TrEMBL record:
Signal peptide: none annotated. The gene is lpxK. It catalyses: a lipid A disaccharide + ATP = a lipid IVA + ADP + H(+). GO terms for biological process: lipid A biosynthetic process; lipopolysaccharide core region biosynthetic process. SUPFAM superfamilies: P-loop containing nucleoside triphosphate hydrolases. Keywords: ATP-binding, Kinase, Lipid A biosynthesis, Lipid biosynthesis, Lipid metabolism, Nucleotide-binding, Transferase. This is Tetraacyldisaccharide 4'-kinase. Pathway: Glycolipid biosynthesis; lipid IV(A) biosynthesis; lipid IV(A) from (3R)-3-hydroxytetradecanoyl-[acyl-carrier-protein] and UDP-N-acetyl-alpha-D-glucosamine: step 6/6. Transfers the gamma-phosphate of ATP to the 4'-position of a tetraacyldisaccharide 1-phosphate intermediate (termed DS-1-P) to form tetraacyldisaccharide 1,4'-bis-phosphate (lipid IVA). HAMAP family: LpxK (MF_00409). GO terms for molecular function: ATP binding; lipid-A 4'-kinase activity. Its EC number is 2.7.1.130.
Length: 335
């Protein structure tokens, strides 16, 4: 899904027309957020966002798990597996499963720590709690799902995108009214630069929600390898322009860009077109890690995967010590 332009314009006719539906949907989701969840045998850390689409949840989940590992914890990830054909619950094996099986995020998570994929959060949480050796769960998304008790919940927000027009889906990008979401969270993490999230930071301050800052850092090795090369960049994520901007910020100038919808499943025809254009214009193909794991298949898709470079990114906290202190405090309080 590509975010419509009116999500960033509160006064647009489309946003105004859809506002009554958004208000009704917001009332339902707000009520749903209040439902009691089930407590599993080990603590749950939830990394979500207040809006539809991406905001850096998966890199944040991996970085949060890594911080807790430094404190001696043993994580297991829980993810829904958007776009995969299996319902789960099941443990993801990146050597065996493909994106068409389990979705793209589970494959990225499973490269770091054990990962359970389940469309039903409760079933997945119960399954994750039984993974041998694990002593806490990190949920990638699922903040608005009330089926599980979350012991430490973090809302992630892109500083450059914010919450758009501040309206609830479908009139805007919010999954539920903002303030009730902030009151249920334990921390707000704002990623990157920009002022679009300033109003959310102010709202978080008003409700006493701790605010942290972070940034996505690309692999220095890949930046060095791609600098100076003319590239064709393509991405099927929530905000492809953010990826293209990251390339430019690090001295990698895309001569051509192609944006696709979030979780886009590439076709053989699209693969052939990208390969032909890169060959004709003598460009190096580059994409995101999430897109790369979706390039599974034979023929043109296999050729595109072989020809494409990726630019891995990692989430870096500005104050990892304080973030870890708060996370450990909440987790211990839950025991």
């Amino acid at each position: 899904m590509r975010a419509p332009g009116f999500w960033w314009d509160r006064n647009s006719l489309a946003a105004k027309a859809l506002q009554p539906i958004g208000a009704a949907y917001g009332a339902l989701t707000r009520q749903r957020l209040q439902k009691p969840g089930r407590k599993v045998d080990i603590p749950i850390v939830c990394i979500g966002n207040p809006t539809v689409g991406g905001g850096g949840k998966t890199p944040t989940a991996i970085a949060t798990a890594a911080l807790l590992v430094q404190a001696g914890a043993r994580p297991v990830f829980l993810t829904r597996g958007y776009g995969g054909r299996h319902a789960g619950p099941m443990r993801v094996d990146p050597a065996y499963h493909r994106a068409r099986d389990v979705g793209d995020e589970p494959l990225l998570l499973a490269r770091a720590y054990p990962t359970i994929m389940s469309r039903k959060r409760l079933d997945g949480g119960l399954h994750a709690a039984r993974v041998a050796g694990a002593d806490f769960v990190v949920m990638d998304d699922g903040f608005q799902n009330p089926s599980l008790v979350k012991d430490f919940s973090v809302l992630v927000l892109d500083a450059g995108r914010g919450i758009g027009n501040g309206l609830v889906f479908p009139a805007g990008p919010l999954r539920s009214p903002l303030i009730p979401q902030l009151r249920l969270a334990h921390a707000l993490l704002v990623i990157g630069d920009g002022s679009a999230a300033d109003n959310v930071i102010a709202a978080a301050d008003r409700v006493g929600l701790p605010v942290f800052r972070g940034r996505l850092e690309p692999s220095a090795e890949m930046v060095e390898e791609l600098q100076g090369k003319p590239v064709l960049a393509f991405a099927g994520i929530a905000d492809p322009e953010k990826f293209f901007g990251t390339l430019r910020q690090h001295g990698i100038e895309p001569r051509v860009t192609h944006a696709f919808g979030d979780h886009h499943r590439f076709t053989k025809a699209e693969a052939e077109k990208l390969l032909a254009e890169a060959k004709e214009k003598k460009l190096t193909l580059v994409t995101t890690q999430k897109d790369f794991v979706r390039l599974d298949g034979d023929g043109p898709l296999a050729a595109l995967r072989k020809a494409t470079a990726t630019l891995p990114v990692r989430l870096v906290f500005d104050d990892p010590e304080e973030f870890l202190r708060l996370a450990v405090e909440k987790i211990k309080r839950a025991d």
